[in-house]
Amino acid sequence: MKAKTADRIATAVIVCVAGLIILVLAALLGYLLVRGLGHISWHFLTSAPQAIKAGGGIGPQLFNSLFLLVLTMIITIPLGIGAGIYMSEYAKDNKLTAFIRLVVEVLSSFPSIVIGLFGLLVIVNTFGFGYSLLSGALALTVFNLPMMVRLTEQSLRSVPKEQKEAGLALGLSRWKTITSVMMPVALPSIVTGSILASGRVFGEAAALLFTAGMSSPRLDFSDWNPLSPTSPLNPMRPAETLAVHIWKINSEGLAPDAPEIAAGASAVLVIMVLLFNLGARWFGRVLYRKLTASK
Amino acid sequence: MNLPATKSQNGSPNKPKKWRKHILEEARGKVFVYFCVFLLVVTIFSIVYFIASRGLAPFISQGVSLKDMLFGLKWKPEGEPPLFGALPFLFGSFTTSVLAALIAAPLGFCASVFMTEIMPKFGRTVLQPAIELLAGIPSVVYGFVGLSVVVPFLRDTFPGQGIGILAGAIVLSIMILPTVTTIGTDALRSLPNGLKEGSYALGATRWQTIYRMILPTTLPSLLTGIVLGIARAFGEALAVQMVIGNAPHIPHSLFESATTLTSIITLEMGNTTSGSLHNNALWSLALILLLMTFLFVFIVRMLERRVKR
Amino acid sequence: MSAQSFYTKELSVYYGEKHAVKRVSMDFPERQVVALIGPSGCGKSTFLRSLNRMNDLISGARIEGKVWIGDQNIIDPSTDVVQLRQRIGMVWQRPNPFHKSIYENIAFGPRYHGVRNRKELDEIVETCLRKTALWDEVKDRLNQSGLALSGGQQQRLCIARSLAVQPSILLMDEPASALDPVSTAKIEELISELKQEYTIVIVTHNMQQAARVSDRTAFFFLGDLVEYDDTQKMFTNPSKKSTDDYISGRFG
Question: ipTM higher than 0.95?
Fold first, then answer.
């Protein structure tokens, strides 16, 4: 009888913990949305922040985050896919491969602040890129690359062997087989994973403090010449992202409505991450259906 | 047969032009992937090299002793003479991350068991997405919620200001919960079915099976998850910095302001001039973070080796 | 390109220490179907896969001996395998169409090998689909994915795909074993037609199939070629006892 009682208690505890976790998530999202949504308006999303007065927005920060994400993915995706192809198709089973695997693992374990510091030392100072979108994008590339490599490797490995053999048997080169036969099969999971990775990049702040910087110049949204210093598209300008902005106003915000702005910005950030999450699932499914024509 | 003639079939099979095309294509592809991998390797070596070259400078050329930094209690970089005791930060980092793991480990274990043994369907459709979502929430948002919910709650419930080690540990525990849970769940799922059924067949209850059979068999994997969680907590910067208070001394209680390695770097790196002793000392702290990463990876590898055996 | 005869000389394949195919010498006359039979693990698939060097993909596999196609020993390291494989079509046990449209499944190979003209490609696609008796079934939906077809249709699509790059030899690794009886009959019929233009080697577990489609049959056992003769003789009056035992179902 005692064993039965223990079993019941344990089961109850486990179920309670599971419930608690869901509750924490619900409370977290609920809190952010309830506190934040009220503050979100078109004006809030588009106007520039105010240093001391109330009523500032997060327009430039939101733009910076999105632009930085695009820049990062443009650099990361080809590099990550290239290295992933190497790991899955070209790497021989030897010491060198084991070493590269270790490199990827260590790189993915580095705290993002360390990567930010590396960016400060090498990209910002040594390369002389200064606090800029480009520096930020390069730092985020270091941060994101290991994930992209693993993702590509796993996706390619799960492609049935016969697909590869069919390509080779037609007299395609190995490279053509990988890019034209295996890639289409692996694409849905690579896309899904990349969108999820984008969510992570979008919310990253620690790697950006000392690379993309903590300030944003006055942006002229009518000037789309990437070389002009006030153009939003200029990759050499400093750019405070949404996540960095949240951190900054929490630690040194002077505006009287700083807590509201933080809440609103956090809600926007979380909504974006939710969108990335749902988008990844949805897009992956659609792509899979389109590529396999299954219903 | 009347297939239209393709170019490839005119002439002998050894036609040189054809040869060049696919060999060139293959070579280009190989150069590209080797370049990508080379870049990865170069990146990691330059990270280590650059941070070490700055971080070792205080010990090599600027007269700070390693012992003073690792065991010194006072951090007064601008004082006369400057003091670089980093023990309070080390203490802060270790206690917050270990405490976070202590909170997250049982929760994560319960969640894993729930998803694999108790209600797999509900677990897969509700709990798992919930945990994935927790993993996706940015750390500054955790920091913000920690600052506006956890800290006031602690301030009202316990003596002190609310900020401090416990606040940091609570925030971190939620952040590392997905890591611990995901790895635990994978380990439980990969258990051979016969093992569990054998135990049930002997008349053991579910809890007895979990406790006597599943827990010991999956322990190395569960520990891997916990170590990875600690590693993540140890390196997390902003969320902790926002709730821990940032007073550079060893606190007397869990509710007193403290500092971690990451938070002191975050706070001071921007305010020091490059090359100064104070600045270089911060790089030494970054070097410690780097070395800790290597240590964590090493421990994880050791544990994984045990899993394989 | 027309059907081509070829022969192997003392062909051995090793997987690490394991001697999987032992000094097999066989000749494959043009426009004939040769069936390779034998119990699982007897080396017949390995043998087949070394004829287009597909075993190169398996780490630890090693080939010795010679395979002469025309005046070229394809085992020679200087052989350009990419080019070699274009001359040798292959069909697998499970249908493996590319994740592309029906049209692209077939046009992809020839286009890679230099056919750019859309009209020429259209012709190739139609010819290949007609040869595999698939044209009437799919001509109105060439832009649909190849994966939308039934299993038997997919397998015929895969055969059509391999014909499109104009091989002279076709290797088939149990091409019908994953299919239903009706589709199997269609594939067998197809093989009998294709042998007018190609030299065909087929691995099969199905003794009746070997008897129905092949001109010559080779019996493999434990990596050895036990007996190789006209199919009719093999099935009525084999000269080795173990062949007789296997064919009459006493083992394997």
Answer: no
Helix orientation angle between A183-203 and A258-292, rounded to the nearest 10 degrees = 180
Token digits of residue B148: 């506006």
Minimum mean pLDDT among A216-225, B184-193, B215-224: which range? A216-225
Å from C129 to nearest chain B CA?
12
Q: CB-CB: which of C113, C120, C197 is closest to B8?
A: C113
Global confidence as pTM: 0.87
Shortest CA distance to B261 belongs to which of B286, B239, B238, B297?
Answer: B286
Cis peptide before B81 (omega within 30 of 0): yes
Average pLDDT in chain C: 89
Distances (CA, A) of B52 to A146, B48, C42: 22, 6, 59
Give counts: helices (H), strands (E), chain B: 15, 2
Phi, psi of C7 (to 5 degrees): -150, 155
Least confident stretch, A206-210, A260-264, B8-12? B8-12
Chain C residues within an 8 Å CB radius of B10: none
Q: What is the DSSP letter of C206?
A: -
Rounded CA-CA distance B76/B174 in Å is: 33
CA atoms of B33 and A85, how far apart (whole Å): 7
* Residue-wise pLDDT tens digits, A48-79: 777 777 777 788 888 889 999 999 999 999 99
Residue A68 and residue A272: Cα distance in Å, rounded? 14
Shortest CA distance from B135: residue in chain A: A200
**Is A184 within 8 Å of C100 when comparing Cβ atoms?**
yes
Local confidence band at B212 (pLDDT 50, 70, 90 cut-offs)? confident
C-alpha pair distances (Å), B160 with each of A162, A251, B189, C11: 65, 20, 44, 83
Q: When comparing pLDDT for A225 and B119, which is higher?
A: B119
B144:A85 CB<8 A: no
**In the predicted model, what is the mean pLDDT of residues A280-291?**
80
| Distance (Å, whole) CA A205 – CA A182 | 35
- For tokens 């933080």, name the residue: A262
* Longest Cα separation, chain A: 79
Task: Provide φ and ψ at C95, rounded to 5°.
Answer: -60, 135
For the segment C86-107, what is each residue's pLDDT rounded down to a tens digit? 889 999 999 999 988 999 999 9
Task: Check residue A44 and give its pLDDT.
Answer: 80
Q: Which residue, among C2, C50, C57, has the nearest Cα to C23 in the 3D structure?
A: C50
- CB nearest to A111's CB, from B46, B115, B293: B293
What Å distances lie between residue A250 and B126, B146, B241, CA to CA? 32, 11, 11
Express each pLDDT in C16-26 by its tens digit. 888 888 899 99
B44 alpha-carbon distance from chain centroid:
17
Integer angstrom CA distances of residue A24 from A16, A21, B144, B180, C99: 12, 5, 15, 16, 43
CA-nearest of C38, C49, C44, C52 to C24 is C44
- Is residue B144 within 8 Å of A246, Cβ to Cβ? yes
Residues in A 118-177 with any Cβ partner in C closer than 8 A: 160, 162-174, 176
Return the residue in C31, C52, C79, C80 with the most chain B beta carbons within 10 A, the one to mutate for interface testing.
C80
Burial label, B60 (beta-carbon count in 10 A; 0-12, 13-18, 19+): exposed
Pick from B236, B243, B292: nearest CA to B265: B236
- What tokens were used for C117? 């003209």
Query: Which residues touch B129 (CB under 8 Å, ≥6 apart)?
Result: none
How far is C-alpha A237 from the chain's CA centre? 21
Nearest chain B Cα to C118, which residue?
Answer: B4
Across the beta sheet with C33-37, the strand order is C88-91, C169-173, C199-203, C33-37, C216-221, C224-230
DSSP string, A79-92: HHHHHHHIIIII--
The one-letter code for the residue type at A266 is S
